[in-house]
# Entry
Amino acid sequence: MEVSSSVSERQVLSMRIKCRSISRGAAEGEVLLTHDSISFLGNVDPKTGEIVEPEHELFGQCIKNKVLVFPHGKGSTVGSYVLYQLIKNEVAPAAMINIESEPIVAVGAIISGIPLVDKMEKDPFEVLKNGDHAKVDAASGFVETEI
# Structure
């Protein structure tokens, strides 16, 4: 983990946390975090990007352009293609962070071009919170956020 600062009108400290790259690319956005696993087939409306599973922690929220943080995927392998539909419908997350990714989410992110990382050096549920701004650089293997 690195801590760096940049100077503009105010000093901004950022934390850079190493992680494993699954699907290369870089994106940034507002963090949307859930402790619930996600089944993209059934939990997410591919037309709107909204979480539609009533029992899910993120029920009613939209994942469009978010840095989506969740433990891992679950469910059918069709979930990979739902991620691809989300991209085609312009309602996909900007990037995703998992505790430990699994093949359904990994394949979906790769075919959709969504940056995906996992195995952060620090627990994402301890260093990130909803509404934070985070940058995911899956090409270089780090997540960066202001502290």
